[in-house]
UniProtKB/TrEMBL annotation:
Protein name: FAD-containing dehydrogenase
Stretches that traverse the bilayer: none
GO biological process entries: lactate catabolic process
Residues annotated as domain FAD-binding PCMH-type: 38-167
Domain of life: Archaea
InterPro entries in the record: FAD-bd_PCMH, FAD-bd_PCMH-like_sf, FAD-bd_PCMH_sub2, Oxid_FAD_bind_N
Gene3D superfamilies (UniProt xref): 3.30.465.10
Pfam entry (one): FAD_binding_4
SUPFAM superfamilies the UniProt entry points to: FAD-binding/transporter-associated domain-like
Length: 167
């Protein structure tokens, strides 16, 4: 598989050493022994730092028909970050620079930890109505893309029901 073009564009943001490949080829919190056996070795890991990195990786994988796997903190328990094909992984944890709240909307980068978002909101007298019990390790982007219930669910249901900011 030719990853030269990716390497030329992204430099050290593309990592292909064995330790890193090993780490991203696993789903550390996956509970299913059956799914665990389906994991494949990833081809490379891109630590994206801005939207241009994301755009480039998405286009590259589309053109070359390479499976692409987004990864936050990798805390999914149901196999969402397990590569079932040899894939490129892009890690979003460095996309964590933006947290803005303007009384109506919260704008937040996907790599921000749920805990940091909660602390940010609580300082402003606000709250996430539903958030995962893995809030201290997982990212908000990973939760929105992959999670659904958690602390607050008995009262407010699923994250995507009406559980937005407590206004
Ligand atoms: C102890 C523990 C408690 C947990 N409690 C809960 C709980 O209460 N409720 C709950 O719903 N889950 C829970 N989980 C599961 C998991 O932690 C959550 O779903 C979590 O919020 C996922 O965040 P993450 O950053 O680890 O995402 P990851 O596991 O890295 O990714 C989750 C999914 O989102 C996708 N993804 C990640 N980032 C992006 C992005 N920027 N764009 C598009 N797709 C993206 C990934 O490809 C994957 O499919 C728990 C897990 C553990 C280990």
């Amino acid at each position: 598989m030719k990853l030269d073009e990716l390497e030329k564009e992204l430099g050290s943001k593309l990592i292909m050493n064995d330790n890193v490949i090993d780490h991203y080829s696993k789903s550390p919190y996956l509970v299913s022994p059956i799914l665990s056996k389906m994991g494949k070795r990833v081809l490379g890991v891109v630590i994206v730092e801005d939207r241009y990195d994301v755009e480039f990786v998405v286009k590259f994988c589309d053109i070359h028909r390479i499976p692409l796997l987004a990864r936050g903190a990798g805390t999914s328990t149901i196999g969402q970050v397990l590569p079932i094909h040899p894939s490129i992984v892009f890690d979003i944890q460095k996309l964590n620079k933006t947290m803005e709240y303007d009384e109506k909307y919260l704008k937040i980068s996907p790599g921000v930890k749920v805990l940091d978002a909660l602390n940010y909101l609580r300082k402003r007298g606000k709250e996430l109505q539903v958030y995962p019990s893995s809030f201290y390790i997982s990212t908000l982007g990973g939760y929105i893309a992959g999670g659904d219930v958690g602390i607050g669910s008995y009262q407010y249901g699923y994250h995507f029901h009406n559980a937005e900011l407590d206004m």
